Amino acid sequence: MSRFLLLVRLALRGLRRETRRSLLTASAMALGLALLIFSRSIAEGAHEDWIDLGVRYAFGHVAVQAPGFLASGSLDQRLAPDQVRAAEAAVAELRERGLIAESSTRLTVSGLASSAESAVPVQVMGVVPEAEGPLSRMADKSVRGSYLVENDRLGAYVGTALAERLGLDEGSRFVLTAQGADGQIQGQLVRVKGMFRTGLTELDEGLVYMPLGTAGDWLTAPGAATTIAVMTTGSEQVAATAMALEDLLGDTGALVLPWQESTPELYAMVRLDDYGDYIFHGLLFAIVALAILNAVLMSVLHRKREFGVLQALGLSPGETGTLVFVEGVFLTTLSGIVGMAAGFALTWLFFRDGLDLSFLFDQELTISGLVFDPVMVPKFTLSHVAQSVGFIAVIGVAASIYPAIHASHLDPAEAVKWEG
To answer: What percent of the chain stands above pLDDT 90?
Structure first.
């Protein structure tokens, strides 16, 4: 133990003697770690925003559906009234547990919207306005008129592009036609309550909201639903919420789908971006590793005489290698602490309200059919910070091994003669 403490003291003395080299090496490593923490936090914040917005427009973090509905979109694959009641009771219980933030019961069908000017294929979504508004945030997209209210049975909330194609204005009437649950073609007269604009052509031209009760009566499916969309209290709660819903629903026949399954396009986009992050971080790790390797190896090459003298005074080759290795570990530890502090400080002090990239785009930022906020708010995840620190530690240790081996193979007789 005393020999090891001696090596530690010699390592610290070596770092102090080469102050400029030590500071330059530690600075490079600290800068790399700070950049890593910053980029990871921005990437995590962007992913959280993508997931949140994407699932709100789709089926939520977790969707309860009848088997086959996701593939067919047909009203034939719907949840019966008793399944709807069971699912809503399960959602209410999980809301009390703090797993669920919002939920909405929907009855969705493909149909035709017709006016005196034109006819356009649309997707009609019957919803409970008070529940759907907070979940999809479509109420915030209103540009004319107002959002739906439950007691306005003939009210319809339509996209501005659809209203333009049909020649509709606030208060205008038009007809929705679709195949009901009984297999018969059914028509429903509705009135434009308000108009929304999301920036997505598919929604603004092809989506109509109406009260759930009206939709159920029109489609001869009162009390039924095609989806119960759920927003959890955070994307990290999705798996636990899905498992809890499955347990509560038991053998009711309802299918529970996390967003990775109900919205595979969004999941693929997030995964693809993750791979890009892995490549960037891999390059960053390689640069940091080379910086450590270069600094420690150059220290060995320039201190051959010192190591030769130490071995002549009784240090074994293995202890000489350990001395070099300890220096590398000290440098890694120092730079890790400084880099973490700098990364958190940089992100929190300058970008806690978000990194605004709107100046890079002349129009709305659209990725895979979704319009995203160009302001990316960082999100710190303990697991990712721990991973970054762990990777830096592994790289620092690994990069110190070769110089340590090189130092342990020095010939003391030749080393003391070296002039460097």
So the answer is: 43
Higher-pLDDT residue of 405 and 29 is: 405
Encoded amino acid at 82, one letter: D
Which residue reads 């719907």 in tokens? 78
pLDDT exceeds cutoff 80 at 132: yes
Dump pLDDT digits (tens) for 368-415: 445 555 566 677 667 766 777 777 777 777 777 877 787 777 777 676
pLDDT in tens, 57-87: 889 999 999 999 999 989 999 999 999 999 9
Nearest to 415 by CA among 6, 9, 407: 407
Which residue pairs from 32-35 have beta carbons closer than 8 angstroms and sit at least 24 positions apart in sequence? Answer: 32/284, 32/285, 32/287, 32/288, 32/291, 32/339, 32/392, 33/288, 33/335, 33/336, 33/339, 33/340, 33/342, 33/343, 33/388, 33/389, 33/392, 34/339, 34/340, 34/342, 34/343, 34/346, 35/284, 35/343
SS3 of residue 55 by DSSP? helix
DSSP 354: -
Q: What's the average model confidence in pLDDT over 119-144?
A: 93
Report the first-to-last Cα separation within the chain, whole angstroms: 32
Bridging pattern class, strands 100-114 and 173-179? antiparallel
In contact, 138 and 129? CB cutoff 8 Å: no
Between 105 and 335, the more confident residue is 105
Measured CA to CA, the distance from residue 270 to residue 388 in angstroms comes to 20
94 contacts: CB under 8 Å, gap ≥ 6: 100, 241, 244, 245, 248
pLDDT value at position 377?
A: 67
Closest CA to 307 of 402, 401, 415: 415
Q: How far apart are CA 114 and CA 112, in angstroms?
A: 6
Range 268-273 contact pairs with CB under 8 angstroms and sequence separation of 24 or more: 269/50, 269/367, 269/368, 270/47, 270/50, 270/51, 273/43, 273/46, 273/47
pLDDT of residue 165: 95
Choose among 114, 115, 203: nearest CA to 159.
203
Report d(CA 95, CA 101) in Å as an integer: 6
Closest CA to 105 of 249, 195, 229, 239: 229
Show me where the domains of the chain are located. 2-53+267-415, 59-262
177: tokens are: 């036609």
The rounded distance, in Å, linking the Cα atoms of 372 and 401 is: 46
Would you say the pTM of this structure is higher than 0.90?
no
